[in-house]
Every structure is written in C-alpha cells, then in structure tokens.
Amino acid sequence: MNSEKYKFKFFPIKRKFRKPLKTNHGNWEFRESIIICLTNHQGKNSWSEISPLPWFGSETVEDALAFCHELGEKITKEEIVTIPDNLPSCQFAFESAWLNLESKIESKVESQIKSNQQLNYSYLLPSGKEALTAWQTGWKQGRNTFKWKIGVNQIQEEIELFWQLISLLPTTSKLRLDANGGLNLREVKEWLKATDKTKIVEFIEQPLSPEYFETMLDLKAKYSTELALDESVANFKQLQDCYGKGWGGIFVIKPAIFGFPSRLEKFCQQSQIDMVFSSVFETKVGRKIALYLAEKFSNPNRAVGFGVEDWFEDNENNYLDCR
User: Fold this and answer.
1) What is the reported pTM?
2) What letter would DSSP give residue 122?
3) Which one of 111, 134, 158 terminates a domain?
C-alpha cells in the first residue's frame, strides 16, 4: 500500500448568505466550512473542502475542526481510508484531495467544467413571495429548472403562492418543491392533489421526514407527481437501506456530506437508479469532485442541484487565495 505521508493544512472559512436561507430546518445565515490542502513529495498541492450539514446527520464544523487539529501536519492514505463514518464530510474532503493527487481526477473535472458537458443547473428560489420575481434572474442565466422551498409558511399560503408562481413561469420550465421533511401526511396529500393538476412540477423532494419511508412508498403509488428522497439518503448506509427496501423513485445525493466518493462511485456503477446530485453550498473547491460524479451518474434528463451561486453576497475567490 502507498504509505506516503502527505503534508496537510487547513483553513476555516465563513461566508454570509445575501439573505437567510429559510427551510424547515430553520434560518441559515452563514455557511461555515474548512478548506484543506494535501501536498505530496513532489510538491504538488490538492485542495478540497469539508462542508458539514449537521441537520442532515453529518458531523458539525466543530467536530471537523477537532479532527483536523488532531491530525497534525501530515496524513497517509491509510489514515484517510480509516476516517470513521461519523465524519462523512471529512471522508469526502480528504479522499477527494487524495484522488486529485493520485488519480488525476482534478484534470478531468477542470476539462469537464470548461466544456460544460451537458450539465444543466437548477436555480434555487427564495421561499415565500420573493419567488414570484426571483425566477426571472435564473431564467436570464439560462436556467429552466427551479427549486422552491415549501413547509416554511402556512400551507394554504404556500399553495396559493404556488398557483401564482406556475402561472408566471415559462411553459418550458420545471419546478421542484423541497419540503425538507417538514410536512405532515395531510399537508403532503394537499400538495399532491395540487401538483397532480399541473405538469410543471418535476418532483416533491422529501415531503415527509425519513422515518415515514413506508408512507412515502404508498404515496408514490397513489399520485402521479414524482417523489424524491433527500434527508432519507444523506449517507451511504441510508442509500443502501432505501434502495434495498425498494425505493424506485428519485434519489437526491449530496456528495459533500455523503462520505467517501469512491464508495458512492462504486454504488452508482453497480446500481441503475434515478439520481440528482446536489450542493450543500460548498465553494468551487469542494464542488469539483461532486460535479465529476454528477456528470458521470446524474440522470441526464434532470438538472443538477448546484445553481446556488447567487445566494452569497461575497466573491468566493476572496476566501480561496490559498488555491
């Protein structure tokens, strides 16, 4: 086995959203993450990012920082592959950096990004009334798939806004509704009755919390609107579990909190499932391997969930002078 010791350094960063992102998990004002760098014996640097999302079940930023401090200044491949499963964002970041060094994935990703190989990005809308005008910005950027958070305000208010929104959206566009597991069964049925009346809704993402998996299977069979799992498949074990239980719908995968990218890649190669790869508001450093996986395995007929650049008030390059 390769026992080379890689030099290791890390840089905590904090980015402010233009306005708080409102979801069923609460309001999100800042995105904190950790940029990491591995350097091999030839002096080549490889950068990646630890981007935890603890309300999805990952470690916290504090957990990740503690792990980085414990490592010291060097790490081996053997130490990387033994990062425990309770640190999935660390697993992703460290293996991504190592793969960039040893497998030349970074050059493939850079080439893919430059050529923009058929990756269509969805555009994340703000919750509430702001969505009625915000979609125009995404449309001008060439986006034709929009994502709107629901389960944030009263359901009748949101359904009323929904009808207004779809009356404004171009007929060639698609709309995704993301509940972040925040609806109850009565509310889900109300939404499905509404969305079944229109063809513009691509799917409802995680309408119920993960413990209601069997109920979502039942709803999927009774309504024509597609359902997608997100919080239910936040890590590798959950993905295996839902796949094994027969979920035949859409899987939304957030690689940056999922764990080792090689493990996800192997699963994707062996399983033919309908996958949409999505962001956790990482910077472009952490996005590289996620986009590499998305280009290879995401359903080509669906937009990937990385259209979030407009949510930050700063230029991320200000934080990435370390590249």
Assistant:
1) 0.90
2) P
3) 111
Please write the tens of the pLDDT for every residue from 200-217. Answer: 999 999 999 999 999 999
SS3 168: helix
The Cα–Cα gap between 1 and 77 comes to: 8
Both 54 and 118 in a single domain? no
- Which SS3 state, helix, strand or coil, does residue 260 take? coil
> What digits encode the pLDDT tens for the residues 146-179?
999 999 999 999 999 999 999 999 999 999 999 9
Do 262 and 299 have their domain in common? yes
Q: Which residue range is the domain that position 87 belongs to?
A: 5-111
The answer as to whether 323 is a domain residue is no
136: amino acid identity, one letter? Q
Label residue 34 exposed, middle or buried (CB < 10 Å: 0-12, 13-18, 19+).
buried
The structural domain count of the chain equals: 2
Q: If pLDDT is split at 50, 70 and 90, which confidence band does 242 have?
A: very high
Catalytic residues: 149, 254
**Nearest one of 136, 96, 127, 43 to 283, comparing CA atoms:** 96
Q: Indicate left, alpha or beta for 301 from its phi (over 0: left) and psi (-120 to 50: alpha).
A: alpha
Of the candidates 72, 90, 111, which is a domain's last residue? 111
Structural domain includes residue 139: yes
For residue 307, give Cα distances in angstroms to 31, 157, 235: 16, 26, 22
Q: How far apart are CA 286 and CA 292, in angstroms?
A: 11
